[in-house]
């Protein structure tokens, strides 16, 4: 789907300060990550270890960026898969892919000499959709395997594993996934407000020449409802308009046209899926 088109641009290593806005989400996430960092204290205090963090919110708001930044912040190895990669015609293949993912995390940690790993599963709803309605039966084995892996995580083992997952359809998830000891910490990653949009724009402006006439305030104002991914597109499309006019820098008019284009693109995406 269209929301995956920016994936290739995400850098491999990432800091939390390269994620604009999302102050509350970042703060909650860092508190959760303390479980990996302060594991000795957690154990001494008898606190139930945290195994899973669920990031919820609309597409393109930075959930994948947050998972990557979490790995960097906790000095963990990072392995990732998307729920749709586990969907297979043949029974059992999805389950064995889940097993392989966790195996990969352990092997990679050992190879890189790290004692923790973050396993990120994007679009978890694809395999973790509610079983109550009788749908998704073919994915049951895959989901069961994921639950087995989660239950099998021991905080004493090396590497310590934290599972992060993302969805924009939290209400669809099977209740088994949300039980204590599984994904019991949820963080909302919402569309950015104006301050957040300004901060995202300033991150993506860094490698681009911007003309003096540009008011970022105004761009942030005009992009109400845009996700981080869409804001990144606005700057990119703006640069393409500047290139077409052979201008050395991106001007306000280029960005205004880019806003229209991204907005239109969004509309046609939506229409084509209706
Ligand atoms: P999806 O639901 O499609 O998986 P997502 O929430 O995981 O979306 P990301 O993949 O993290 O979104 O973001 C896509 C791209 O959008 C990023 O590579 C980045 O360029 C830009 N982006 C999104 N959110 C932010 C943000 N808060 N700060 C800076 N850039 C952002």
Automatic annotation (TrEMBL):
GO molecular function: metallopeptidase activity
Cofactor names: Zn(2+)
Top-level division of the source organism's lineage: Bacteria
Ranges for domain AAA+ ATPase: 49-193
Keywords recorded for this protein, A-Z: ATP-binding, Hydrolase, Membrane, Metal-binding, Metalloprotease, Nucleotide-binding, Protease, Transmembrane, Transmembrane helix, Zinc
Family: Belongs to the AAA ATPase family. In the C-terminal section; belongs to the peptidase M41 family.
Protein's name according to its UniProt entry: ATP-dependent metalloprotease FtsH
Organism: Paenibacillus eucommiae
Source taxonomy: Bacteria, Bacillati, Bacillota, Bacilli, Bacillales
């Amino acid at each position: 789907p269209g929301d995956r088109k920016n994936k290739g641009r995400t850098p491999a290593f990432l800091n939390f300060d390269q994620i604009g806005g999302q102050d509350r989400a970042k703060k909650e996430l860092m508190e959760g990550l303390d479980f990996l960092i302060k594991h000795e204290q957690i154990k001494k205090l008898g606190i139930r270890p945290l195994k899973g963090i669920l990031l919820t919110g609309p597409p393109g708001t930075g959930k994948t960026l947050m998972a990557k930044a979490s790995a960097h912040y906790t000095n963990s190895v990072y392995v990732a898969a998307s729920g749709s990669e586990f969907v297979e015609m043949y029974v059992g293949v999805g389950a064995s892919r889940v097993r392989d993912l966790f195996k990969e995390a352990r092997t990679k940690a050992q190879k890189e000499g790290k004692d923790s790993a973050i396993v990120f599963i994007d679009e978890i709803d694809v395999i973790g959709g509610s079983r109550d309605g009788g749908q998704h039966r073919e994915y049951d084995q895959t989901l069961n395997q994921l639950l087995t892996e989660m239950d099998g995580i021991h905080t004493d083992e090396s590497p310590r594993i934290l599972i992060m997952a993302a969805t924009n359809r939290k209400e669809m998830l099977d209740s088994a996934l949300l039980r204590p000891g599984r994904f019991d910490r949820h963080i909302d990653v919402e569309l950015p407000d104006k301050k957040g949009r300004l901060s995202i724009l300033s991150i993506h402006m860094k490698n681009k020449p911007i003309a003096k006439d540009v008011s970022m305030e105004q761009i942030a104002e005009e992009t109400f409802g845009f996700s981080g991914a869409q804001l990144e597109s606005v700057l990119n499309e703006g640069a393409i308009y500047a290139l077409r006019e052979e201008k050395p820098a991106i001007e306000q008019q280029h960005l205004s046209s880019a806003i229209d284009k991204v907005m239109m693109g969004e509309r046609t995406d939506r229409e084509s899926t209706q």
